[in-house]
Write a structure and sequence with these properties.
This protein is mainly β and 110 residues long. The chain has one domain: Roll (SH3 type barrels), CATH 2.30.30.790. It has 1 helix and 7 strands, in the order βββββββα. A hairpin with a 2-residue loop joins strand 1 and strand 2. The two termini are 18 Å apart.
């Protein structure tokens, strides 16, 4: 598949829901935080420049996108949560539709 990448043991592709754990340093302490969202795009030609963008909607209804470098030392793990059945390379259209329509378009079986 052209729109999928392998990270550690998980194969992730566009439209999948993933959970990314990354390290944060605050006040001299290290802690891990998880960002769980839909994979919108994968960018970069080789492993050193590869980045991906994930999007989630918060409880208050605000959309949050995060661009994460795949080769970053702060990324500790990427966990596959849910398989999406979408075949395009970019999912920019989900910025304008509701969560119900997102579930219908991405996760339904054709």
């Amino acid at each position: 598949m052209a729109n999928s990448r392998k990270f550690q043991d998980a194969i992730i592709s566009i439209g999948d829901t993933i959970a990314v754990k990354y390290r944060i340093k605050e006040d001299g302490k290290d802690r891990q935080q998880e960002f769980k969202g839909i994979l919108i795009k994968i960018k970069g030609m080789d492993e050193n420049t590869r980045m991906f963008t994930t999007r989630k909607v918060t409880r208050s209804g605000i959309g949050v996108e995060r661009i994460i470098p795949l080769n970053s030392p702060t990324v500790t793990s990427i966990k596959f949560v849910k398989k999406g059945s979408y075949r395009k390379a970019r999912l920019y259209f989900i910025r304008t539709i509701s969560e119900r329509e997102i579930r219908h378009k991405i996760y339904r079986q054709k």
